[in-house]
Structure prediction request, 72 residues.
Amino acid sequence: GRVEGQEPRGNALAVKASVPLAEMFGYATDVRSNTQGRASYTMQFDRYEEVPGNIAQDIVEHRTGEPVGAGA
Prediction:
């Protein structure tokens, strides 16, 4: 993901970032663990983007159980 900005909010800091959904799994646990339970987050859908070819290949191979380009 990438941080797009941050701003102070009282005694806290709000951070805005764009992160692929696949990278968000486990985030709630990580953020609570790293902040002794004091941080929170919200998530909002922003857009769809094309998956890079190497990642798409991994997804297809995982789903089908066969290497991409094999057989046919």
